[in-house]
Design the sequence.
């Protein structure tokens, strides 16, 4: 196991110094070997990962396996299967004016990369981007969240076992460490977190014109049409909202439900919550705890504000000692409530009645573009909502899954982020798609200066030929 340096500038300098060499030596075989070493280091620590995330979150081992470890194995497996094809230069057609040339697009590594991971899925969202960085041939510095210290320690252990720090390093600490890292001229920055911090990251990247991938968040809405199967909708919505205690960037934030099925959906959600977590979910090992007392107070404050302004609680309670808030359904919420304006990021779900789908589409468009949008209903409802709105991703008759699909690019739009992750999209994010054009027998020099009458006639002929 390699001892890891801690000084951000020292780590960056060590990685940056090897960029020219890595462009040649970090070839297909080397990248494949790096991915396999990462996988083996994780396999050797599966129990430690489960224990660490349990200590930070109180998450059930099943949930840790499904949401933190399996997605990384899937990312590694997908990269190993497709890496040779991703790396292969792609030929392009010459076009009329380029006849006589051969062109190709050659993916080349951007160089050094910084991965700033969040606290809500601390393992997956640190190592998922790392898979893409290694596949693309980049070095990486990972800054895990200080809010999940046990998981951050395991991440550091995995990386120290698998890599030399001049290829991959972990730097632990709080905002001061993050700021010190952002002062370094990384070639690419991959940040997952809030829109507010995303703006800080983007401003820091602008100083050196580093490219960025920003996976942010927002209030991801659900639309339930009058023709929807409310029991299936309740199953997917409850799972998507309350997994990880609702602390998921693509979790359903609020539900627009047609008035004809509003009460039925509320009843189905109550039944589903009881089935998933029992009569007192705060005692259920399947329900994760809120990350810290500050967020617990924020969430209970949102509930209190909503109830104080006229909302009613269909189900839900809380326990401060365990930092658990049982799945809470709120009815009759209004736009002036804090819960209607702030991203909830917890196990609380407002149901909002509607009668006209056009009004719902208008409300979605009036808000910042969400990271995810979900629709339950028939094809007509799904098409109307999908075509009439903008969002990072869309799920039809399901929730959450677009974020872990290996062959779908995942990313935000506008306030919810920029760029994309996973699979080929992740590989491209850490790559410069470099055009290479070779001259074979192009006739363009025939119209180089001096501009004689003959050149003038040739240029007019070219203009007419291309303009046809």
Sequence:
């Amino acid at each position: 196991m390699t001892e890891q340096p801690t000084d951000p500038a020292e780590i960056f300098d060590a990685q940056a110094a090897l960029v020219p060499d890595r462009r040649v030596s970090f070839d297909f075989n080397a990248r494949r070997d790096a991915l396999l070493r990462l996988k083996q280091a994780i396999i050797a620590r599966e129990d430690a990962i489960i224990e660490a995330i349990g200590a930070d979150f109180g998450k059930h081992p099943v949930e840790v396996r499904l949401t933190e470890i399996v997605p990384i194995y899937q990312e590694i497996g997908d990269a190993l299967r497709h890496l040779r094809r991703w790396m292969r230069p792609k030929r392009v057609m010459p076009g009329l004016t380029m006849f006589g040339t051969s062109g190709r697009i050659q993916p080349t590594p951007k160089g050094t990369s910084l991965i700033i991971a969040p606290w809500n899925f601390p393992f997956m969202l640190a190592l998922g981007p790392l898979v893409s960085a290694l596949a693309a041939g980049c070095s990486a510095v990972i800054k895990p969240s200080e809010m999940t210290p046990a998981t951050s320690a395991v991440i550091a252990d995995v990386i120290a076992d698998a890599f030399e720090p001049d290829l991959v390093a972990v730097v632990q600490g709080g905002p001061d460490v993050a700021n010190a890292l952002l002062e370094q001229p990384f070639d690419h920055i991959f940040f997952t977190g809030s829109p507010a911090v995303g703006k800080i990251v983007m401003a820091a990247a602008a100083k050196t014109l580093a490219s960025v991938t920003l996976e942010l968040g927002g209030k991801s809405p659900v639309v339930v049409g009058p023709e929807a199967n409310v029991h299936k909708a309740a199953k997917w919505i409850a799972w998507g909202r309350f997994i990880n205690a609702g602390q998921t960037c693509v979790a359903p934030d609020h539900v627009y439900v047609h008035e004809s099925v509003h009460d039925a959906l509320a009843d189905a959600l109550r039944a589903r919550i009881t089935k998933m977590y029992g009569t007192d979910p705060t005692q259920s090992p399947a329900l994760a705890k809120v990350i810290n007392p500050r967020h617990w107070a924020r969430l209970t404050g949102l509930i209190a504000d909503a109830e104080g302004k006229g909302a009613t609680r269909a189900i839900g309670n809380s326990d401060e000692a365990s930092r658990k808030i049982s799945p809470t359904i709120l009815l009759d919420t209004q736009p002036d409530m804090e819960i209607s304006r702030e991203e909830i990021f917890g196990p609380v779900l407002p149901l909002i009645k509607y009668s006209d789908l056009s009004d719902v589409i208008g409300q979605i468009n009036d808000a910042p573009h969400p990271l995810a949008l979900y629709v339950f209903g028939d094809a007509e409802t799904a098409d109307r909502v999908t075509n009439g709105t903008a969002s990072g991703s869309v799920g039809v008759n399901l929730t959450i899954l677009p974020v872990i699909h290996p062959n779908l690019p995942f990313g935000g739009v506008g306030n919810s982020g920029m760029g994309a992750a996973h699979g080929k999209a992740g590989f491209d994010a850490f790559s410069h798609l470099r055009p290479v054009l070779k001259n074979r027998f192009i006739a363009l020099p025939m119209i180089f200066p001096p501009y004689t009458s003959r050149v003038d006639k040739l240029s007019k002929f070219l203009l007419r030929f291309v303009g046809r």
In short: The longest helix spans residues 61-87. The chain has 17 helices and 18 strands.
